[in-house]
């Protein structure tokens, strides 16, 4: 399936197919991202919710059986805090069995938005 023909119509469509507890987490992450800048655009890319600012990636997220994956995050100053959450290739995994670090997600998103605005 190509990016031009996604499985999901939009982010609401993606989220509604998940269990309620996962929906709540994704809605919280979605709000964090959208609150970071009114110019952030939301779309589906690679069959995942995707957020861009000025056509540059802020992040993608995806829900899996045991975790939520965050993609496209620049680790930078957050390397130490993210170390326990890192999977292969810089993917951040937020496990359902642990408290979701919303403050850290917010810091990551705000840092990425600042980086993009200062380009």
Summarize the structure in short:
By secondary structure, the chain is an alpha+beta fold.
Describe this structure as you would to a colleague.
The chain has a 5-stranded antiparallel beta sheet with strand order 1-2-3-4-5. Helix 2 (20-36) packs parallel to helix 4. With 119 residues, it is an alpha+beta fold. 36% of the residues lie in helices and 24% in strands. It has 4 helices and 5 strands. It is globular, with a radius of gyration of 14 Å.
Could you name the key traits of this structure?
5-stranded antiparallel sheet, 119 residues, single chain, globular
In terms of topology, how is this protein built?
Blueprint: H1 11-16, H2 20-36, E1 41-45, E2 48-53, E3 56-63, E4 67-71, H3 79-82, E5 92-95, H4 102-117
Antiparallel strand pairs: 1-2, 2-3, 3-4, 4-5
Helix pairs in contact: 2-4
Category from helices, strands and their pairing: alpha+beta
| Low-confidence regions | none
Strand content: 15-25%
Backbone shape? globular
Strand arrangement within the widest β-sheet reads 1-2-3-4-5
Sheet bearing the most strands, described?
A: 5 strands, antiparallel
Alpha plus pi helix count? 4
């Amino acid at each position: 399936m190509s990016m031009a023909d996604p499985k999901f119509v939009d982010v609401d469509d993606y989220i509604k197919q998940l269990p309620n507890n996962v929906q709540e987490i994704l809605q919280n992450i979605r709000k964090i991202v959208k609150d970071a800048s009114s110019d952030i655009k939301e779309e589906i890319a690679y069959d995942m919710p995707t957020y861009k600012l000025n056509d540059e990636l802020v992040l993608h997220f995806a829900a899996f059986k045991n975790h939520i994956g965050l993609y496209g995050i620049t680790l930078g100053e957050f390397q130490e805090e993210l170390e326990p959450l890192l999977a292969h290739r810089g993917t951040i995994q937020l496990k359902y069995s642990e408290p979701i670090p919303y403050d850290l997600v917010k810091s990551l998103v705000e840092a990425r938005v600042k980086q993009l605005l200062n380009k």
